[in-house]
Design goal:
Strand content: 5-15%
Number of helices: 8
Structural class: alpha+beta
Number of strands: 4
Mean pLDDT: 89
Shape: elongated
Number of domains: 2
Strand order of the largest sheet: 1-4-2-3
Radius of gyration: 31 Å
Low-confidence stretches: none
Order of helices and strands: HHHHHEHEHEEH
Largest sheet: 4 strands, mixed
Length: about 230
């Protein structure tokens, strides 16, 4: 009996040194918590295991994160409802600003007056295509090309973008693959990573000049309003 109790005590102490809590030792040995406390009370309290610290943090902060996420969604929804119906002029002005922020620009010494738009956001692409349609750019003048890391599921992503813009995969220009660099820590990974879509307007020099003029006119008007 004494030997069994001694062995149980040593097992309890070994478990405590391994970082186990009182409750975990009680559950494993099937003894009273008071006995465990008596056997191991001279041992230093072990550091809390990382996984337990994580569970504790999650239990503490999860309600705050849920409340924050709900508030975020409520704010986004309220803001979205403030937009209402867009007029053609609204879309026209949005498109000009969108292109001048994200599209290719002609710069000296190489004056390339091309209408090229590159983005990874599907909604951005959809707004841009709606703007081109508003301007009367015919679908047959559009060329699409994917730029993506070679480690991605290229075929699936090509299908995704082709479906989004309403063309066949075979109609896409040859995909540009970016070489995988294991040294670089990439954040654009996972199922949601779809690379960037390049949208080019054929014979777009005249359209580019008009876009540049529209943007200049908008900037001048803003200056006039603030004068």
């Amino acid at each position: 009996m004494v030997q069994a109790k001694t062995e149980m005590r040593e097992r309890a102490r070994a478990l405590r040194r391994a970082g186990r809590t009182y409750d975990e030792i009680v559950a494993e040995l099937g003894v009273a918590k008071s006995s465990v406390s008596l056997w191991v009370r001279d041992l230093p309290k072990p550091p809390t295991p990382p996984e337990r610290l994580y569970r504790m943090r999650e239990a503490r902060w999860a309600p705050h994160r849920r409340a924050r996420d709900i508030k975020r969604q409520q704010t986004k929804l309220a803001a979205a409802n403030e937009i209402g119906r867009m007029t053609d002029r609204d879309l026209f002005l949005v498109g000009v600003g969108l292109y001048w922020a994200e599209g290719a620009k002609s710069r000296p010494p190489r004056m390339q007056e091309s209408v090229v738009f590159v983005n990874s956001d599907p909604l951005m692409i959809e707004v841009y295509l709606a703007w081109l349609a508003l301007l009367g750019v015919e679908p047959e003048r559009l060329r699409f090309r994917l730029m993506i890391h070679e480690s991605a599921d290229v075929s699936a992503v090509e299908r995704y973008w082709a479906d989004l813009v309403g063309v066949e995969v075979a109609d896409l220009d040859k995909t540009t693959l970016k070489k995988h660099n294991p040294v670089t820590v990439r954040k654009n990974t996972g199922e949601d990573y779809r690379g960037c879509l390049v949208v080019r307007v054929r014979n777009g020099a005249d359209l580019y000049r008009r876009i540049e003029g529209w943007w200049y006119g908008m900037a001048v008007e803003v200056k006039r309003r603030t004068a």
